[in-house]
Write a structure and sequence with these properties.
alpha+beta, single chain, globular, 163 residues
């Protein structure tokens, strides 16, 4: 499975999610599950912090994030949602998992983290075959990216990727 380069919302969301996940990994050495939204205007936002309950299990936090993503998607005005969390490879390497849903596609991307602290970098995203949340969980509520070439999402997806 490879990145659909015609899905502009996917490209922008993956870039934004990589940056956010990288910040968490550099600052904390971990990524508790959290979600991101990409609005039809091209703005991004994060889910509320749901990990403040010390007794909450990982599965509890994942479910709270999933519910926030679904609730926010149902309220309208979004073109993409993403769920992020840390993962460990079969070799025990720390990585970042990003599942993105748009009107056109759903994908899970894994990036291995190399280094620590400020020296940490994420390797190129590799598509995975499994998903963190059900395919289509928010699909019906997500909107299409406007076809206007000057739209912020289209301009950002055409820019070289960074992270």
């Amino acid at each position: 499975m490879s990145l659909d380069t015609t899905d502009h919302a996917l490209k922008v969301m993956l870039s934004e999610a990589r940056m956010a996940g990288s910040v968490f990994l550099k600052q904390f050495g971990a990524v508790r599950p959290f979600g991101m939204f990409l609005t039809v205007d091209g703005d991004t936002d994060l889910t509320d912090d749901v990990s403040d309950d010390a007794s909450a299990t990982y599965d509890d936090v994942m479910e709270r994030v999933r519910l926030q993503l679904m609730d926010r998607a149902m309220s309208g005005g979004l073109v993409a949602v993403a769920l992020l969390t840390e993962v460990y490879t079969a070799k025990g390497d720390l990585g970042l998992a990003i599942q993105i849903q748009t009107r056109l596609s759903t994908g899970l991307y894994i990036q291995r983290a190399v280094g620590q602290g400020d020296d940490l970098v994420l390797e190129e995203a590799e598509a995975a075959s499994s998903l963190l949340m059900p395919d289509g969980l928010c699909f019906s509520a997500l909107e299409s990216v406007p076809e206007d070439a000057n739209h912020p999402i289209l301009r950002r997806s055409a820019a070289p990727s960074s992270a």
